[in-house]
Design a protein that fits this description.
Blueprint: E1 2-7, H1 19-26, E2 31-36, E3 49-50, E4 60-61, H2 63-73, E5 79-89, H3 92-98, E6 103-107, H4 117-124, E7 128-133, H5 143-154, E8 188-189, E9 192-193, H6 203-221, H7 223-227, H8 236-244, E10 247-250, E11 253-256
The structure holds 6-chloroguanine (6GU).
């Protein structure tokens, strides 16, 4: 896969040299290119922004500079991603879909954002354009969100994560539950013991315990995920555990008592 990131702070993307994503690049699994938007400016001051039409605070990024950059960078079939706090939430399901694309282009805005005609223009030309957000808080620019999407997608590319099994059982996986807690040695540390059941060697009991922990964690931390869960994926024991946690099935959906 090819990913292009365009930003006025290309150095902000240097962590992408490191770790898993860096290895994927070195292994030739990911062709990642970071560009400086100002390379497409034509004036002496390398201007990328201007005042908002209609008034208001801050500055807006100019559509003409962005289009010069994107026309050069976008290849046939590319998916254009625009990080913005007003975008749709980025989810594991989105990341999985993005991992099947041939090219992603991430257009990082700063200031009050990119002139809205840029997204409109590329959509009208048949480019898939997704404006996405990484959470309900405001960042100063899209660069951190670009790091997030590159890491979330990069680790799903075939061959990037050494053991593909680590992709199967994970938080926000198909099960729709958060991950259970994990432990390593030593079995006693700082007066805290690893839960007995994990040392029992009893595979079925361990599986059951982990499933109950995942259900309890999800109920405590992400009740929205339980409410959205496909109840068809729940067995009799799940339903008993959930009942103990104060959840039951009403009209085909989990509901809090
Ligand atoms: Cl994608 N961009 C910015 N600037 N702020 C955000 C965000 C994105 N997601 C959450 N906050």
């Amino acid at each position: 896969m090819r990913i292009d990131v365009v930003s006025i702070f290309p150095d902000y993307l240097s962590p992408l040299q490191l770790s898993l994503v860096g290895k994927a690049r070195d292994a030739g699994l990911l062709d990642l290119r970071v560009h400086d938007l100002r390379d497409w400016t034509t004036d002496r001051h390398r201007t990328v922004d201007d005042t908002p039409v209609g008034g208001g605070a801050g500055m807006v990024m100019r559509p003409d500079v962005w289009a010069s950059a994107l026309d050069d960078v976008l290849q046939d079939g590319a998916h254009l991603l625009i990080p913005t706090p007003s975008g749709e939430p980025l989810t594991q399901r989105n990341a999985e879909a993005l991992a099947t694309e041939s090219q992603l282009v991430v257009a990082c805005g700063r200031y009050e954002g990119i002139d809205a005609r840029v997204a409109e223009h590329y959509r009208a030309r048949g480019v898939r354009v997704t404006e996405f957000s990484i959470g309900d808080y405001v960042l100063n620019g899209g660069e951190v969100a670009a790091l997030v999407v590159v890491e979330a997608v990069g680790r799903l590319l075939p061959g990037v994560v050494g053991n593909p099994h680590s992709l199967v059982e994970e938080s926000h996986g198909a099960a729709g539950l958060l991950e259970y807690p994990v432990y390593t040695k030593p079995p006693a540390w700082a007066g805290l013991e690893v839960p007995e059941v994990l040392m029992s060697g009893h595979h079925a009991r361990i599986e059951r315990w982990r499933r109950d922990q995942a259900l309890a964690r999800t109920a405590a931390r992400r009740p929205d995920m339980l409410a959205a869960l496909d109840v068809g994926t729940l067995d009799k024991h799940d339903l008993a555990t959930l009942a103990d946690l104060g959840w039951r099935v009403v009209d085909g959906a989990l509901t809090r008592d």
